[in-house]
Amino acid sequence: MTVAVVLFSLAVIILAAVWVALLVRARNKHLLLDRMHGPVGDASGAIGFSLLCSGLRRLGQVENLLSSEYDRCEVIAVLDARQQPMLFGKLAARYRMIRVDYLPSDELPVHGVRSMWRSRQRCFRHLVLLDRPADTAVDDWNAAASVASYDWLLPVRDGQYMLPGALERLAVEAGQEHAELIRSWMGEPFVLFDRERVAAAGGFGRRPLRSVPRRRRHTLWEPFFYRPTRQSPLRRWRPWAAAVLVGAIAAAALTGHWMPTVLLLDAAVAWSAAACAARLLAGMAGRPVPCKISVKNFTVS
């Protein structure tokens, strides 16, 4: 039992230290790229992104995705105009959408598309709408990818909002040699695919991630997407919970119960690591609004 507790404590400490170290390294890289924003933007300008959206229910999410200052990007939203006539109508009116010929590529399995629409407004020329019956997210992404203009495909689900500068940062990673897949588990998880890899796998339903060699996968430890959420009402009780934890550690140590003391110290280490990680993620996200980022809601103070 003693050996098990010691090994568990060491595992907690090592995992917490590695987690924080990875986030610190990502934060430093993030700050460095921010200072080099001009040269980096020029170097990565040839890389384009197609954001493939499925299950959208809010006009604000489309506005968020279109707000990127990165030039070589497009938003392809797949909607069922019969089930969501209000949203489809709002999008068509807001962005002055016009119907165009639907000419899909033959790389991916696609069916059921009724019509395709593009925006007439120059400032929103990167928006494309596909009208097809409500289906799975995989089928929606395949349909969107079949009309995508760029070589990097980014599937987006309902409620995923993009942080400022996300595409500029992804362009840096996509421009590295041998990169075929980029992902991050921080914030709202996402995976960015090379188009050729998705086509070779026969679509998103064939799990193209598995076909990408590990040496060609890039994992990033910083947030790129977030999900707006209200600030937790339990936040104000955290100082009291911390005081209770400190008191419990002191009581266990003073009474000679070393095993509960060690376990409580492990809890304190994990809590501290989570708090440190949340502050690092909040700093990298750079948003002064409550967002669901990794371990906790954050607010930049």
Name some characteristics of this structure.
301 residues; alpha/beta; nine-stranded mixed sheet; two-stranded antiparallel sheet; 9 helices; 13 strands; disordered C terminus
Textual characterization of the structure:
The protein is an alpha/beta fold. It has helices at 2-35, 37-43, 59-66, 85-94, 137-145, 166-174, 195-201, 238-254, 258-285, and strands at 49-54, 73-79, 97-100, 115-119, 127-131, 152-156, 161-162, 181-184, 190-194, 217-220, 225-226, 291-293, 296-298. The strands form three sheets. Strands 3-4-5-2-1-6-9-8-10 form a nine-stranded mixed beta sheet, sandwiched between helices. The chain has a two-stranded antiparallel sheet with strand order 7-11.
Share of β-strand residues: 15-25%
**What is the H/E string?**
HHEHEHEEEHEEHEEHEEHHEE
Model regions low in confidence, pLDDT < 50 over at least 5 residues:
38-43, 287-301
Please state the oligomeric state of the protein chains shown. Answer: single chain
Number of strands: 13
Going across the major beta sheet, what is the strand order?
Answer: 3-4-5-2-1-6-9-8-10
- Using the alpha-carbon principal axes, give the shape: elongated
Describe the biggest sheet? 9 strands, mixed
> Over the alpha carbons, how many angstroms does the gyration radius reach?
23 Å
Ends distance: 44 Å
Query: What structural class do the secondary elements suggest?
Result: alpha/beta
Our count of helices gives: 9
